[in-house]
């Protein structure tokens, strides 16, 4: 036997192996193809042998040849043979080959199912690994369905190596077999907390991929990911999670609020640029999702922009590139903060790296304003001149046009300048955007009436110099401009100085070399010009001149009649005959000019490009119905090539067609309008419904031209746009002076009546008036049309199928198909026939698979319907849901299902958790503690209900009742919660007068502290707000502002304290101009606006009508926090009555207790123990006598008023922890016996501790 | 997701191609050619990102590449991957190759493309990043190689002898086309270790 093997391998050693093949190919450089074909013949011979080693060697060589581009699919069966070898060496070769060349339509794949299944369950982990790797590349829907269950079992394999591969491949399985997502998801979620970092990372990877496509289904995982984010140290995982959050925040702004702080911390702390960059990116996403700006968000933006600037300034080109990329995202929502870095971005335009220049260009787009547009475009024009390479130049050109034309030419103040720019751009060689320039010229000339005179003059010069553009074949792209020029000159020929000259220019023989569609426009517009010329000449009584003109036409037009282009020919011959007829009339001395002009009378209005699409289909019109009898099969086949032809045709003559459409549409609109006007029941659309559209340029059909001319081309006689910049400067200067004068006269300056006003620019910009009275005609849209585009998602997107609600409990029918033995089926009793049948149908049989799936779906549908019904039922008759409940629970059929099915309760709990987790707005935390935070919160869920709303309505429990949480009910729930909140708030108001009141902030804290495990009785309401000052004694009917304050440390800065003050108007007058001022002490200072002195007050940013209260926040900087402090302050305000207003003043004292410097910080008991053992802490204790309250109330009180959190509680003894804003640790041990409470405390700052204890004592002495 | 991983030399000769989406052989060659043209005309000192070519991708895809002496390593990825992260990954890949081949050079990749595939399979699976820890990758690759050796056993001996003889007959294999300075500065390489 051994001999045989050795003999076999001796035979083998003279076969070529991979190395020999490679060597051979390298030695046959001249006749590589021939050599390879002999090698392939050899390989074919080798594959015919029985020896698996020989086969494997052959397959290995084939894999190499595949890389070189040879089709090896003919060897697919041999590859399967090698895959099924029992030896790992060959198996690996086989799987590698398969992964390189198998795909969904490889038919031998279905032979592999059992082999792969065997390999997956192999005792050798590398067999399994290799099979998984291979499968990941060529998995098909059938394989996915048949193997999903096996792979799912592998997700819990003992070896992490297998686990991570199994987890990762699940994504591929989901894509191919979406039904597997729901049953597999619970286990996938479990893997997020796998002890092995590799497995964890794989799970994060898969869920991120899933969530990227259908983010809303994964919102409920946000808390879990939040926890991972704050605890993980693997940058790869962190990046993935942070990217995921970027996708989730647009759906849930509350999440964004929660994220900002940990992300900011990460930005500050991380050294890894990749992580920093992703954090910045996600912060940007968060900021975009938060529409209402909270004050500290501007700080976040600043931080992002700052960090990005550092990236852009870095010498590493990669960082520079990414910095610009992220900057452009900020630009969309916060253009102002980017605009200040204009210098930097313009600098990037000079970068030698093209990608960076392109990114900088993108940014410029958003940075222009009326003020700087000319300057920026001038810079860009310089770059256009300098640029080498047509791609970059083309990019510059499109950017210039984009920048200028954005939001309906919002930033252009001088259209003469713009036209000049466009004309200058026509001098570009080799651009393929000629038609873009052309469409801009047309658009401006049509829509800005005032510019027509100028535009026509310019276009006439262009036409005159047309030979410069057409002279060179390579300049084909730019001659599109002539299209626009000819049309403008023709259409607005009444503005031409010398129409005769232009007419001659348009009829030059050279014109025949232009593309057909341009010639057609030439011919048509020559006719228009002809009409104008006739009119002028007849007016001058020079009969002969008019006849000469006709003769000119008759002489020149035959050239076009001979054109090969149908369009040109048709128009030319039509017009030729017309002119001949006119000449006849002229010879009889008949005045024809007026009649000829009538041919071209009427004005065009611009129509939005999508207008036609937006016309609603009239009722009763079925667009899909056949008008005639449908043609027979064979006919439709014949039709095919025709259709293609027609399509191409329209491509070429596209612009003309739209013209026709516009006219037609306008006509129809007119008719409809009249109809509607006469219809008394028609409600007329407001003008605002006519939305404006930007034209989307179609670039594709212009041929690419890539030749650079060494000598730049000058078009003579054209004004340089630069002079406009100067002119504009002067004009603005003058304007300003004028305006001042006018203002003195108190006359309002009337600004150019624009079709659309854009008031978004800064005020200074508003001062810039346009040079002309500019009238931008808005494009017309049909009535009732919706401007929003229908989302045309790709229906073939595989991810669409994965849009599956994951929180619904698993239905019975959803379990993954499991292979079962026929023997087992036979054993089943007849009573279980039904089961057996369904099991049998799940046996993978190709034939019936489709049917089966459909059946399943049906079943599911039915089931979900049932569930819905039941739910309703349950809502109506709470408590009586015994029957429904039974049916609702998944009936466990087999062991496999029990593994698969997730308990529904856990899912629902999660959704409500999420709601809670999110509603719990910004919670003070920082990077170290953040890890523990979500856990603490999760633990405190049960308490919150009672903590936040101690005496809420009895409908509260309804909320926590485990419901089926599909979308509907969660929505419903949200509403309900909102309602509750409102109710709560109302209550608060009522309570307010007793000064027992829950502030939002207070509620949060009590939630966080989560003091009590088992709640014997509801906690009494507590409040942090206390009366600051009140004056009711001054004037009798007067105002009373009463202030309450709540002092709370601000975590972000170790020396900042934020004081919230509620101002309430107690009188029946109007309070305004409130100013808040505090006498600064050495230690504490009120933060005032920049530039104000230390004695200036802060204006309260609101006024108080009668009966209204509002809250304002003031920030103090504090140096030392070990001692409590009192600050004296005054509030001045104006009381306004119907007839009089008086100044009033109210003095108050702000009391900064030491407790207010403490921040509730959760702490784990082991960390707590370590802290105590460390020995750095000083000891102190206090005894409270006669405290009559339950222990948990006592703890809650300490938590609430002094910002502690409970670490551990054992019977009548509890340890508590808190931290000061400057990082002092404060630990308490609270013991109670009877009415005596002893508090032993430790802190690293004895003075602070003493004061805190005093304050605690104070708290309890009050009650 | 990673859509494709390509390695080719300064002349555009493919040294490894791994597509995580199916293309016909012709398209694959075209993609390699196109990518080579895009990448090769870029200077050394420009950024390593490229908006993808016509054939591969679309707006969501980018090419991220690194150039080491004679070889280009190109990853085509979509927006779910971090750009800098992929740059790190390429570095990890090259360093792993360096460890596995002991001073890797282009010839190693030419003659042992199967081994390169096996190493890559431990890093990226089906277009998703499997492992970023170099030591872990090397451990797995080594133990699989050991298994292969033990399977070959006696039967492998003659083949090994022959291949030794073959190598002897040949002019000395040049080992000096080193893959170059693999310690190219990455802004955040430390993150993966």
Automatic annotation (TrEMBL), chain A:
Residues 777-794 have a biased composition (Acidic residues). Residues 660-807 form the AP-3 complex subunit delta domain. GO terms for biological process: anterograde synaptic vesicle transport; Golgi to vacuole transport; neurotransmitter receptor transport, postsynaptic endosome to lysosome; protein targeting to vacuole; synaptic vesicle budding from endosome; synaptic vesicle membrane organization. SMART domains: BLVR. Residues 646-683, 714-1023 are annotated as: Disordered. Part of the AP-3 complex, an adaptor-related complex which is not clathrin-associated. The complex is associated with the Golgi region as well as more peripheral structures. It facilitates the budding of vesicles from the Golgi membrane and may be directly involved in trafficking to lysosomes. Involved in process of CD8+ T-cell and NK cell degranulation. In concert with the BLOC-1 complex, AP-3 is required to target cargos into vesicles assembled at cell bodies for delivery into neurites and nerve terminals. This is AP-3 complex subunit delta-1. It comes from Zoarces viviparus.
TrEMBL record, chain B:
Residues 1-147 form the AP complex mu/sigma subunit domain. PROSITE patterns: CLAT_ADAPTOR_S. Transmembrane segments: none annotated. It holds the Pfam family Clat_adaptor_s. It is a peripheral membrane protein. Its main location: membrane. It comes from the Eukaryota. It is found in: Cytoplasmic vesicle membrane; Golgi apparatus. The keyword Nucleus does not apply. One of its GO terms (cellular component) is cytoplasmic vesicle membrane. Keywords: Cytoplasmic vesicle, Golgi apparatus, Membrane, Protein transport, Transport. GO terms for biological process: Golgi to vacuole transport; intracellular protein transport. SUPFAM superfamilies: SNARE-like. The keyword Mitochondrion does not apply. InterPro entries: AP_complex_ssu, AP_mu_sigma_su, APS3, Clathrin_sm-chain_CS, Longin-like_dom_sf. Belongs to the adaptor complexes small subunit family. Part of the AP-3 complex, an adaptor-related complex which is not clathrin-associated. The complex is associated with the Golgi region as well as more peripheral structures. It facilitates the budding of vesicles from the Golgi membrane and may be directly involved in trafficking to lysosomes. In concert with the BLOC-1 complex, AP-3 is required to target cargos into vesicles assembled at cell bodies for delivery into neurites and nerve terminals. This is AP complex mu/sigma subunit domain-containing protein. It comes from Zoarces viviparus.
């Amino acid at each position: 036997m051994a001999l045989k093997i050795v003999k076999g391998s001796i035979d083998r050693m003279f076969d070529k192996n991979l190395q020999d093949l490679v060597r051979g190919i390298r030695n046959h450089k001249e006749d590589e193809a021939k050599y390879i074909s002999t090698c392939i013949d050899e390989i074919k011979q080798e594959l015919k042998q029985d020896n698996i080693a020989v086969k494997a060697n052959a397959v290995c060589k084939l894999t190499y040849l595949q890389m070189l581009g040879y089709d090896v699919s003919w060897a697919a069966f041999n590859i399967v043979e090698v895959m099924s070898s029992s030896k790992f060496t060959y198996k690996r070769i086989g799987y590698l080959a398969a992964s390189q060349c198998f795909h969904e339509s490889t038919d031998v794949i279905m032979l592999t199912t059992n082999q792969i299944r065997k390999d997956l369950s192999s005792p050798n982990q590398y067999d399994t690994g290799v099979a998984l790797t291979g499968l990941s590349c060529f998995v098909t829907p059938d394989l996915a369905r048949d193997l999903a269950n096996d792979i799912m079992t592998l997700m819990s394999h003992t070896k992490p190596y297998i686990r991570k591969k199994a987890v990762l491949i699940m994504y591929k399985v989901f894509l191919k077999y979406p039904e597997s997502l729901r049953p597999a998801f619970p286990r996938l979620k479990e893997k997020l907390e796998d002890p092995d970092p590799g497995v964890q990372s794989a799970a994060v990877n898969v869920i991120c991929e899933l969530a990227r496509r259908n983010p809303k289904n994964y919102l409920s995982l946000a808390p879990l990911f939040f926890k991972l984010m704050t605890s993980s140290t693997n940058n790869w995982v962190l990046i993935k999670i942070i990217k995921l959050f970027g996708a989730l925040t647009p759906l849930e702004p509350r999440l964004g609020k929660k994220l900002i702080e940990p992300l900011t911390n990460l930005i500050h702390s991380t050294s890894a640029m990749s992580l920093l960059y992703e954090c910045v990116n996600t912060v940007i996403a968060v900021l975009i999702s938060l529409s209402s700006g909270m004050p500290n968000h501007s700080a976040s933006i600043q931080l992002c922009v700052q960090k990005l600037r550092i990236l852009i300034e870095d010498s590493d080109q990669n960082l520079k590139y990414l910095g610009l990329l992220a900057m452009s995202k900020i630009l969309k929502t916060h253009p102002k903060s980017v605009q200040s870095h204009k210098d930097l971005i313009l600098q990037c335009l000079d970068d030698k790296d093209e990608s960076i220049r392109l990114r900088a260009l993108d940014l410029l787009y958003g940075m222009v304003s009326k003020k700087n547009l000319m300057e920026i475009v001038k810079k860009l024009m310089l770059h256009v001149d300098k640029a080498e390479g047509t791609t970059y130049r083309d990019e510059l050109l499109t950017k210039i046009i984009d920048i200028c034309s954005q939001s309906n030419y919002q930033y252009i103040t001088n259209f003469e300048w713009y036209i000049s720019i466009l004309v200058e751009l026509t001098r570009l060689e080799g651009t393929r955007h000629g038609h873009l320039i052309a469409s801009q010229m047309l658009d401006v000339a049509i829509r800005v009436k005032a510019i027509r005179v100028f535009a026509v003059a310019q276009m006439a010069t262009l036409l005159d110099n047309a030979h410069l553009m057409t002279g060179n074949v390579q300049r084909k792209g730019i001659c599109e401009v002539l299209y626009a020029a000819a049309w403008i000159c023709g259409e607005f020929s009444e503005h031409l100085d010398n129409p005769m000259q232009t007419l001659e220019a348009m009829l030059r023989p050279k014109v025949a070399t232009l593309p057909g569609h341009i010639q057609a426009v030439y011919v048509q517009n020559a006719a228009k010009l002809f009409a104008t010329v006739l009119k002028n000449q007849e007016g001058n009584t020079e009969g002969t001149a008019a006849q000469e003109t006709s003769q000119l036409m008759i002489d020149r037009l035959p050239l076009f009649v001979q054109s090969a282009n149908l369009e040109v020919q048709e128009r030319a011959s039509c017009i030729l005959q017309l002119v001949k007829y006119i000449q006849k009339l002229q010879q009889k001395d008949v005045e024809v000019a007026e009649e000829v002009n009538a041919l071209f009378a009427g004005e065009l209005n611009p129509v939005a490009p999508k207008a036609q699409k937006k016309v609603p289909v009239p009722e009763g019109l079925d667009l899909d119905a056949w008008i005639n009898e449908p043609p027979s099969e064979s006919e439709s086949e014949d039709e095919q090539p025709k259709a293609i032809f027609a399509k191409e045709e329209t491509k070429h003559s596209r612009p003309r067609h739209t013209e026709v459409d516009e006219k037609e549409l306008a006509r129809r609109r007119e008719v409809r309008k009249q109809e509607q006007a006469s219809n008394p029941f028609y409600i007329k659309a407001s003008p605002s419904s006519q939305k404006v559209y930007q034209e989307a340029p179609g670039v594709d059909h212009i041929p690419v031209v890539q030749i650079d001319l060494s000598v730049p081309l000058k078009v003579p006689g054209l004004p340089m746009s630069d002079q406009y910049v100067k002119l504009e400067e002067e004009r603005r200067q003058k304007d300003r002076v004028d305006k001042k004068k006018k203002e003195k006269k108190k006359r309002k300056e009337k600004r150019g009546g624009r079709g659309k006003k854009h008031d978004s620019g800064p005020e200074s910009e508003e001062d810039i008036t346009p040079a002309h009275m500019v009238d931008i005609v808005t494009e017309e849209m049909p009535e009732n049309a919706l401007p929003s585009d229908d989302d045309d998602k790709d229906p073939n997107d595989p991810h669409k199928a994965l849009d599956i609600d994951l929180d619904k409990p698993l239905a019975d029918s959803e379990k993954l198909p499991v292979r079962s033995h026929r023997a087992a089926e036979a054993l089943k009793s007849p009573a279980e026939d039904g089961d057996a049948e369904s099991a049998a149908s799940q046996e993978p049989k190709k034939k019936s698979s489709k049917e089966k799936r459909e059946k399943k779906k049906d079943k599911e549908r039915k089931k979900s319907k049932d569930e819905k019904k039941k739910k309703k039922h349950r809502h109506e008759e709470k408590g009586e849901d015994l029957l429904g409940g039974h049916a609702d629970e998944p009936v466990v059929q087999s062991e496999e299902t029990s593994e698969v099915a997730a308990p529904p309760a856990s899912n629902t709990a999660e959704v409500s958790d999420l709601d809670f987790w999110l509603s719990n707005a910004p919670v003070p935390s920082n990077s170290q503690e953040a890890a523990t935070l979500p856990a603490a919160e999760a633990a405190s869920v049960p308490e919150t209900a009672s903590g936040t709303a101690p005496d809420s309505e009895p409908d509260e429990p309804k909320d926590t009742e485990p419901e089926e949480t599909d979308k509907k009910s969660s929505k419903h729930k949200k509403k309900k919660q909102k309602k509750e909140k409102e109710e709560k708030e109302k209550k608060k108001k009522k309570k307010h007068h007793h000064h027992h009141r829950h502030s939002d902030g207070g509620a949060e804290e009590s939630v966080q502290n989560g003091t009590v495990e088992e709640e014997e009785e509801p906690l009494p309401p507590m409040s942090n707000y206390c009366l600051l000052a009140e004056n009711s004694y001054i004037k009798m009917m007067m105002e009373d502002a009463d202030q309450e304050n709540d002092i709370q440390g601000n975590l972000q800065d170790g020396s900042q304290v934020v004081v919230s003050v509620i101002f309430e108007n107690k009188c029946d007058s109007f309070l305004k101009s409130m100013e808040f001022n505090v006498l600064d002490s050495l230690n504490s200072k009120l933060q005032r606006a920049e530039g104000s002195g230390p004695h200036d007050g802060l204006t309260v940013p609101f006024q108080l009508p009668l009966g209204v209260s509002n809250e304002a926040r003031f920030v103090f900087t504090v140096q030392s926090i070990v001692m409590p402090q009192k600050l004296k302050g005054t509030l001045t305000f104006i009381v306004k009555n119907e007839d009089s207003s008086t100044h009033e003043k109210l003095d108050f004292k702000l009391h900064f207790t030491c407790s207010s410097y403490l921040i509730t910080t959760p702490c784990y008991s082991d960390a707590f123990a370590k802290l105590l053992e460390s020995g750095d802490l000083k000891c102190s204790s206090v005894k409270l006598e006669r405290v009559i309250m339950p222990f948990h109330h006592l703890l809650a009180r300490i938590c609430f008023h002094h910002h502690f959190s409970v670490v551990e509680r054992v019977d009548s003894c509890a340890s508590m922890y808190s931290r000061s804003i400057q990082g002092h640790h404060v630990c308490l041990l609270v013991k109670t016996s009877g009415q005596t409470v002893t508090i032993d405390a430790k802190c690293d700052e004895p003075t602070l501790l003493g004061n805190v204890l005093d304050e605690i004592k104070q708290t309890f002495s009050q009650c | 997701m990673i859509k494709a991983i390509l390695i080719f030399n300064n002349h555009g000769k493919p040294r490894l191609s791994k597509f995580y989406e199916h293309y016909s052989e012709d398209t694959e060659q075209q993609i390699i050619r196109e990518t080579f043209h895009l990448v090769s005309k870029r200077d050394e000192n420009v950024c390593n990102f490229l908006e993808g070519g016509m054939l591969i991708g679309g707006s969501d895809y980018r090419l991220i590449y690194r150039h080491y002496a004679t070889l280009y390593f190109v990853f085509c990825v979509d927006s779910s991957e971090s750009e800098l992260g992929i740059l790190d990954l390429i570095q990890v890949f090259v360093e792993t190759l360096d460890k596995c081949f002991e001073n890797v050079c282009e010839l190693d990749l030419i003659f042992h493309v199967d081994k390169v595939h096996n190493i890559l399979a431990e890093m990226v699976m089906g277009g998703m990043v499997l492992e970023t820890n170099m030591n872990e990758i090397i451990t797995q690759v080594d133990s699989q190689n050991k298994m292969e050796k033990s399977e070959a056993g006696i039967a492998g001996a003659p083949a090994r002898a022959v291949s030794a003889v073959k190598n002897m007959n040949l002019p000395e294999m040049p080992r000096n086309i080193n893959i170059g300075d693999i310690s190219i500065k990455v802004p955040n390489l430390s993150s993966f270790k």
